[in-house]
Amino acid sequence: MIEAVDKRWYIGYSWWITLNAIIVIVLSLCAMFVPSLSYMSGKWGMTLVALLLATITILYRLVLYNKLERSSGLNFATFIYSLLQLANLIHLINVTGWSHSWYFSIYLVMCFFCGMIGLFPTVGAVLITTIYMIIMSPQLLSAGGFDWLAVGAIALSYIACIMSYFAWRNQYIDQESQKIVNLKGEIIGKEKQAEMLIQSIADGIIVIDNKGDVTLINKKACEIVGWPKQEALGFDGVAVLNIMQDNNSLKSIQFTDHPFRKVLSSANNYSATVEVLNRDNTKRYVSLVISPVVSPQHNSVIGAIAVLRDVSDEKKQEQQRAEFISTASHEMRTPVAAIEGYLALAMNDKVSSIDAKAREYLDKAHASTQHLGKLFQDLLTSAKAEDGRLTSHPVPVEMRDYIEKLSQDLQFSAQKKGLEVELIINTPHNTTTDATTTANLQSVAPVYFALIDPDRIREVITNVFDNATKYTDSGKISIGLSGDDKIIQIFVKDTGPGIPKEDIKHLFQKFYRVDNTATRTVGGTGLGLFICQKIVELYGGTIWAESTLNVGSTFFINLPRLSNEQAQKEINKQDLSIDSNLSGVAK
Length: 587
Prior knowledge:
- It contains 21 helices and 14 strands.
- It starts with 6 loop residues before the first helix and ends with a helix.
- The chain has helices at about 5-35, 40-45, 50-65, 65-70, 75-95, 105-115, 120-135, 150-200, 220-225, 230, 235-240, 260-265, 310-345, 355-385, 400-415, 435-445, 455-470, 500-505, 515-520, 530-540, 565-585, and strands at about 140, 145, 205-210, 215, 270-275, 285-295, 300-310, 395-400, 420-425, 450, 475-485, 485-495, 540-550, 550-560.
- The protein has four domains: about 5-180, no CATH class; about 200-310, PAS domain (Beta-Lactamase, 2-Layer Sandwich); about 315-385; about 395-570, Heat Shock Protein 90, CATH 3.30.565.10.
- With about 575 residues, the chain is α+β, with helices and mostly antiparallel strands.
């Protein structure tokens, strides 16, 4: 069906119908109420029926035409308008001599314009003409001979319908062809504009389809991965974006572990800094963000888009800065340690004799030297943590015994300050239990294994516990252990002043310290919690804090839990490694 032609044809046609209806209304009223014009009722067909049909046509134009145009389209609104006009026209033809009526010429005009509305109205006009021919066939042979005028009128009706179809069909095709040409030009223009924008972006862009093949890559991405654009297009994105393993080897990441495959399979975003090996075997550090492309119709992943930013220079600067801090801290620790040693000797009664005032000054100098030594040590550790040089020797550790022994070592510093130390095993930190319940829980507590370096985790828990001791003036400090099938949770809870909500999100940043009365009176480097976070992350864990002002704070440490079978395998591996080393030494 022809959907539409130029709108101006519809507007002109509807005005033509409106004009016809107005003329019929005026002439019908004149025939009915002006005696001298009453002849129009018989000769021109201006009867009450014609008046009613014309009035309905005008009312439709005023009330319903625009509504139908908005809801169903201009062609449908015009089609209904034509039917009303046709009904009136058939009435006029009927009362004024059928094929001999001069109204038949208007019918021919309507037959020609019916093609403008569509194919079905054209077929309808042909059917109406055919029905008319069948009805009039007995009258075609008049008393004087064959009625050639009626035959000619019918033939002209068919010709008008045929001309209508082809004329308006070509008009529609020409118009649609022009629309297609214009639309194609717009699409090409937008594609070129999008291509220019993508190529001019300072970051690399790689787009893959749901099979993982590259469908788009810009100039910057080609520079990062070392692939020419024409070779990369249509190739596997995993091969184009060659990501290396984290152990500083030249081995590529496993196919199933590649971020492209993970995003396509999980439909989750990916963000990380990775090491990319391009085709000339040059390594680059790349900040990589990958997002899935989801089809709104089927809610399925149809591809992914990756944004790459070369951060090799920033990474190099970070490494240089970390090396400087590491070297400077290491070099400065030696003289500071010497100063601390000499100050300790100076305060030793067996070595020297000093008055009370001098001892006070030496005590302050010794404390400041110890603080400076701690700062250098923290700087050195933080530098190693940032560039991955933090040493770690993970082994399977049964966390219940580990926490019990560690809490016994830590309790002395708290007890010196008059604080109670509470150990809670297998009980969530916000659960209140009596002594009997706690004893029962401990007796049935499961075995919690974690793959950690016990010295490193001891450093973390000690740091958090020392902070709790420093900032808690009275009350108690709780050390707890609980977990489920996948996670082991350690928490340290105090009854100190608490931490403001706006400061909690900054606690694990370098050199950040909460600015309040309590922190001003307690020394610190602002590096302890940053180091704790880096250590916990070494073992796939997380650390965070929750706090309520004037109530206290709780620091949580979550570590992945090993099943008993996994722990036994790790223990066997450790034993085999030791046996192998011993055999090597013996040889």
